[in-house]
Amino acid sequence: MAGAGTHREHGRRRGQLSQLNQLNQHGQHDRQHGGGTMIARMFKQIRPLAGVELKAIACGSLGHLLAVFAVMLGVHGAVSWYEGRAFWPQVVAAIVCGLLAGPCAYGEQLNNHELAFRLLRDIRTEVFNTMRRLAPAKLKERGRGNLVTMLTEDIELLELFYAHTLSPIAIAALCTVVNSVVLAVINPWLGLAAFVAYLLVGLALPFAFKDVTFRTALQERERQGQLHTDLLESLDGRRELIALGASRNTRDRLKADTDAMTNARRKTRKVTGLNSIITDALTLLCLVAFAAIAWSLIQSGSLADPALALAALGGFAVSFPPLIAVSRLGSGIQPTFAAARRVFALMDETPAVREHESDEGAKLGAFTGLKAEDVTFHYPDSRDNVLKGLDLTINPGDVIGIQGENGAGKSTLIDILMRFRDVTGGKVTVSDQPIEDINTASLRAAETLVSQDTFIFSDTLAGNIAVARPDATREEIADAAHAACLDEVIDQFPDGLDHMLLRNGSELSDGQKQRVAVARAFLSRAPFMLFDEPTSNMDALTEGQVMRALIDQQHGRAYLIVSHRPAVLAHASRILTMENGRLG
Ligand SMILES: Nc1ncnc2c1ncn2[C@@H]1O[C@H](COP(=O)(O)OP(=O)(O)OP(=O)(O)O)[C@@H](O)[C@H]1O
């Protein structure tokens, strides 16, 4: 037990090390060219909504500039009043500017969020479509927790880029130019001082924090994904863990994951805090320096009107918010880039097979049989062939049983016949069409798989049976349920077929879940059905009934049944054995 624990721990450490290596590699990659490419890609997605973005920038810039002008005019008016000069025009103008600034800020937020939410909707759809294309072969390799993190938090984080990054940067740039010019009109030295201060706060500081914030943010997201994966794994495997007395190890592992995530989060917060402190300190220093310059200009006589000098100082003091927003982006935006990289990496993942969607690919007519000729296959990360020159012919009406030792390649063969994976040699044809040329929807209509693990959705029992044919009539559903020996399950619930099942059907036994899967198959009109251990969780009596029902309901369809059970294989018209990557 201790050995197993140590072994597992080594495995985990190896995993963590490889993750860290990946992080470093990704970090380097991003520093070299990936980061720029990614930002370019994020911009590209905005292009169709450029009009909304421009409105946000216009409103935001105007709002900030009006706020600065309001203060400058107000200060000038106040000093003029003190000196007994005309002050009303400035005061009225200040009030008008102040009043207009509010609606402009509102317009900026409105347009920014309009843009962000429309983009996020499109990205979510794109990610969901990608996951559909990658399933099932490629998604197995990604932790469920990581996928959950991506679908929820990562995509939400992109909102930060689209709503709070692009327009603030453009607004800060515009305000920098306009404010510097206005101050330069008052005095060129003041304009120059303001410009340098803006560059320091809005450009130099975010640049200085760029790498460290990216690294810490990326680590935090990876740790969070790891924690989600381990958490879901321990929930899914809780029965085994309790039965094997391994709960303690799991608790320790989750604690270690939580500690790692908390540490990573602490590092991110430290960097964010430091960034804030330095930004505030730098802004204050700039203000003092600006005041000193204004003072020396007054002393030297270069700036004769103190009202103008004070107005410039007041305007400069309130002109920082757009730059501070950019400066803080340094810490806020980097987690977004980390999230974007993960989302784009998923979108760029090549599926195990290239599907033919909508009108692409050959449409199948009547099913005339399936042929596998000299098929070889190896998994991408392995050089050993699992299938080695395998031949198989299935005609309509055949019931073919396949047996073989564990690991012989039976499930792999099913994946190939369902085209979840492509062969690495030889060919598979369905109704004389090469399987890789067939339109995916057409292939799915011709082939149905009943696998050992049945997923139950949070829906009624009837809805769960009719999952692939939502248009099935009540009578058809009831017939399918009856044929799959589900009567006893229906009777056990007061509302029968309308009983609402919990997600993953915790109130059904494993054998009952398998019967739901068989009922789904009965409803299917597919002329070729594949069964991977369809009765492995059923008792002998139910198994016999279900198998007899399958044969009674065959109606000329072809069945391929993988099973270790002689009682199941006894229903086959031909039994083949998988050995050395071939069927014999
Ligand atoms: N995703 C994968 N990546 C790499 N190797 C894999 C993968 N899936 C399966 N294998 C390997 O391919 C071989 C065949 O596995 P497969 O699951 O097809 O066997 P099987 O005959 O269905 O076994 P069982 O009777 O236990 O269900 C095994 O050696 C297995 O370790």
Give descriptors for this structure.
584 residues; alpha/beta; Rossmann fold; six-stranded mixed beta sheet; four-stranded antiparallel beta sheet; 18 helices; 66% helix; binds adenosine-5'-triphosphate; ABC_transporter-like_ATP-bd
Question: Could you describe the 3D structure shown?
Answer:
Pfam families: ABC_membrane, ABC_tran. The protein has 584 residues and is of the alpha/beta class. The protein has 18 helices and ten strands. The chain has helices at residues 2-46, 50-82, 88-134, 144-164, 166-186, 188-236, 238-243, 247-300, 306-317, 321-348, 410-417, 440-446, 461-465, 474-483, 487-492, 510-523, 540-552, 566-569, and strands at 370-377, 387-394, 399-404, 425-430, 433-434, 447-450, 528-532, 558-562, 574-579, 582-583. The strands form two sheets. It has a six-stranded mixed β-sheet with strand order 6-7-8-3-9-10, sandwiched between helices. A four-stranded antiparallel β-sheet has the order 2-1-4-5, with helices on one face. Strand 7 (528-532), helix 17 and strand 8 (558-562) form a beta-alpha-beta unit. It is elongated, with a radius of gyration of 33 Å. The relative contact order is 0.08. Residues 1-33 have low confidence and may be disordered. Bound molecules: adenosine-5'-triphosphate (ATP). Adenosine-5'-triphosphate is lined by residues 379, 381-382, 386, 404, 406-412. Adenosine-5'-triphosphate (ATP) binds next to helix 11.
